[in-house]
Amino acid sequence: MKTFFVGIDISKDWLDVAICEGESMKVLVSFRNDNSVEGIEKIILKCAKSVAKQKLWYCFEHTGNYGLLLAHILENKSITYSAVPALEIKRSIGMTRGKNDKVDAVRIAIYAAANHFKLSETKLPGEKLLRIKHLLTLRGQLLKNSQQLQNSRKSFLVAAKSVDLQDVIEDLNTKITELKKSILIIEEKIRTEINSSEDLTNTFNKVTSVKGVGLMIAATMMVYTNNFTAFDDPRKFNCFAGLAPFGYSSGISITGKTRTSSLRNKTMKTLLFNGANTAIMYDHDLKKYYNRKKIEGKKHMTVINAVACKMVARIFAVIKREEPYVNLVR
């Protein structure tokens, strides 16, 4: 049983550590070490000297690449840990004054001790999924750069009516073309990674059998769900993506519109909305559903959100049934 909780505040160069005893909520020790292989090894050794290894549960904020080495070493040593969204820790603590890494480590340790009943052990995705994750991140950055340059080109085209800017516009065209080529290369690398794994290929084929789901939606969902092992319920995933609608009321006098949460994964929601817009063009049932809701007076984005939820339900269904989605011919 885990009765001591190690809170770690992660930065690029170092890790601040604090150990909290679960029952008394007393912080036993706090210290700092380098964010390196040697530093992390020393942290594990020092924590094990303070408390028996089997009683320790490590907890830190989900910080992306800066925490990847820590997670990798803990997992290799079969040490239990949780990577928790920073906002969840912040909201659980409430209002705070001031900030420094040592205090943050203590706050994370206290958070873990106070919320140990709802902590779930984190598991890193496999190497191929991690590579796909970073390829998706790079693609997103290049896509953003491409859009910025395209917006700049529009501005220069307006200015070119008064000033000779042909050389500037040609330079922008070249850069935009190069970025688009790079994006296509990255997408091909993602396909290659998926095709190199039988498990990922099977999942990909089932997921993309759902109308509106292409490479980007499938690959991104596979990463966020750890190939559909981190989520077992489409409703939970809808909450994660920001698709699930919630009521808004208080007593008998305040009743607002049902709305989705602002706490969402924006990338996933955008991709699913794009997929939903495609699905209503090519899927008979979803197209019929969309048209019916529009006739009832529903707004476009409200219906698209509902269509995206239906797509997620279909995706989880094909994973559960272990067979592709079949659209009945009508």
What does this structure look like?
By secondary structure, the protein is of the alpha/beta class. Helix content is 57%, strand content 14%. The chain starts with a strand and ends in a 9-residue tail after the last helix. The strands form two sheets. It has a five-stranded mixed sheet with strand order 3-2-1-4-5. A two-stranded antiparallel sheet has the order 6-7. The chain is globular, with a radius of gyration of 24 Å. It has twelve helices and seven strands.
Estimate the strand proportion. 5-15%
Number of strands: 7
Share of helix, binned:
55-70%
Secondary-structure-based class equals alpha/beta
Mean pLDDT: 89
Largest sheet: 5 strands, mixed
Run of helices and strands? EEEHEHEHHHHHHHEEHHH
Radius of gyration: 24 Å
Number of helices: 12
Strand order of the largest sheet: 3-2-1-4-5
Shape: globular
Low-confidence stretches: 247-251
Q: Distance between the terminal alpha carbons, to the nearest Å?
A: 56 Å
Summarize the structure.
The chain is α/β, with parallel strands linked by helices and 330 residues long. 57% of the residues lie in helices and 14% in strands.
